[in-house]
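Support request, please re-run this one:
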Amino acid sequence: MFKINVKLKATTEEFARDSFENLLFSICRFKECIGRYSKQIIVVS
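Re-run finished. Output below.
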């Protein structure tokens, strides 16, 4: 088993004004940082 250094992979999204924008901007931020869209998104409310 290997350990992942979360500090090196963590990023923030600071512009969302509500939950919908938080989801939308986070998807865009993921694409910006990783270079592709996520295959799966799980929303918990």
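The mean pLDDT is 86. Residues 20 and 26 are 10 Å apart (CA to CA).
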